[in-house]
Write a structure and sequence with these properties.
With 400 residues, the protein is mainly α. It has a domain of 166 residues. Helices cover 65% and strands 0% of the residues. The chain is globular and about 65 Å long. The C terminus is likely disordered.
């Protein structure tokens, strides 16, 4: 258990040195500080310029980002989120670089710590520090991504739902509309048990409708443009030349990297894997329908398995099942500890993927078979526990 602290600590120290040794708004490698944050910052700038109808103009975004670099650069990060998310970024766009991304990263780390609290970690600070050693968490911070905000919304949703504040839980969960694909995780659980979960479904529906109406009211042209943009850019992002496939940690990316010349077959295999996961999460939800922590953990695990587009920093969501299983299924902590260690190590598999793509036309992204194995072991363990009586002295894990 000492190795994560050494390796994680070295990663953070190296990143901080890179920031301090960089020039202007860039780090030592020549990337803008908070590499991916610049897409959000650019969207906020476009709103401030009064050019919201051009929110998805690649030319305008590119010119703004070139100004931040100060010199000509080949790096470019397009804005991919719905229009209303750009309004959240307006306050940050008022702050000059590089302070804006640093404040953003700081707020993200606060959200990470709050997530530990909302998920009921036994030692929130220790869990927070341990999470910082995990590569997806490090990338979420150093890339200036919004993964910690997604994690906080998931965690607060669970906190409210477990305490039977269903309508409010649905409303909070609807905030994930800035990443619409994430809505299917908890939403699927609610649909499976819609008779009992109608209040949460109502909250989710009302929240989404309010945000859609907000988009159409304040940013009508950008909202209509987003529909075309999402189909053209978002849906084909992993097929764009230069896309960093080694950082893509989804099942669809696994098959596309393995079968780059047979994309139709890769898509079929991905859909088969997603449907395979859907069947098992349905069975899982039936067997654990009265155990909210375990049920929520299973839903998030299925979400990470099934979404077509996930990058390495999106695996931060796996902290949800990790903390819930550790606390609410303590009988199996030996298994959880082994799974955590296995996924911690395998999160570094992008290095092998990158090396394969240099010398081969295809690659095997080992993180995805590792994820399958981890989910399979967890599923078998929890299904076995559902059929066995609770050991003496172990309290039921149902919250509320």
């Amino acid at each position: 258990m000492k190795y994560p602290w050494f390796i994680g600590g070295a990663s953070w120290i190296g990143w901080l040195i890179s920031l301090l040794a960089g020039k202007g708004n860039t780090d030592l490698a020549g990337h803008l500080i908070g590499t991916d944050f610049v897409a959000f910052y650019t969207a906020g700038k476009i709103i401030l310029m009064g050019r919201s109808p051009e929110l998805y103009s690649l030319e305008l975004a590119h010119s703004i980002q070139q100004g931040l670099y100060g010199v000509s650069s080949l790096n470019f990060n397009p804005y991919l989120n719905p229009p209303h998310y750009a309004l959240w970024m307006v306050p940050f766009a008022l702050i000059p670089y590089p302070w804006a991304p640093l404040i953003w990263i700081g707020l993200g780390l606060v959200c990470l710590w709050l997530s530990m609290k909302w998920l009921g970690a036994e030692h929130p600070t220790r869990s927070f520090l341990g999470a910082l050693t995990w590569l997806p968490v490090f990338y979420a911070a150093s890339f200036g991504q919004n993964s910690f905000f997604s994690l906080a919304i998931f965690s607060l949703t669970y906190y409210l739902w477990a305490r039977k504040r269903s309508l409010l839980a649905g409303l909070v969960y609807s905030l994930l509309l800035f990443k619409p694909q994430f809505l299917i995780g908890f939403g699927l659980l609610l649909l499976f048990d819609w008779r009992k979960s109608w209040r949460a479904l109502l909250g989710l529906g009302l929240g989404c409708l309010a945000q859609i109406g907000f988009n159409l009211w304040l940013l009508p042209q950008a909202s209509l443009e987003y529909l075309t943009y999402a189909l053209k850019i978002n849906a084909n992002l992993m097929s764009i030349e230069g896309f960093p496939m080694w950082h893509a940690y989804s099942v669809q990316a696994f098959w596309l990297a393995l079968l780059p010349s047979l994309k139709w077959l890769a898509q079929i295999l991905y859909l088969g894997c997603a449907m395979f996961g859907l069947y098992f999460v349905w069975r899982f939800s039936k067997d654990h329908r009265n155990d909210k922590p375990i049920l929520f953990a299973g839903a998030v695990g299925w979400l990470v398995w099934s979404l077509p587009y996930l990058m390495i920093y999106d695996w931060t969501l796996l902290l949800v099942p990790a903390l819930l299983l550790w606390k609410h299924a303590p009988t199996y902590r030996q298994q959880w500890r082994a799974i955590f260690a296995f996924l911690w190590v395998m999160s570094f598999s992008f290095v092998l993927t990158f090396g394969q793509l240099i010398i081969l036309p295809f690659a095997v992204q080992l993180s995805l078979p590792a994820l399958f194995l981890a989910l399979f072991i967890a599923y078998r363990t929890l299904q076995k526990s559902a059929r066995e009586p609770e050991p003496p002295g172990v309290l039921p894990s149902v919250v509320g």
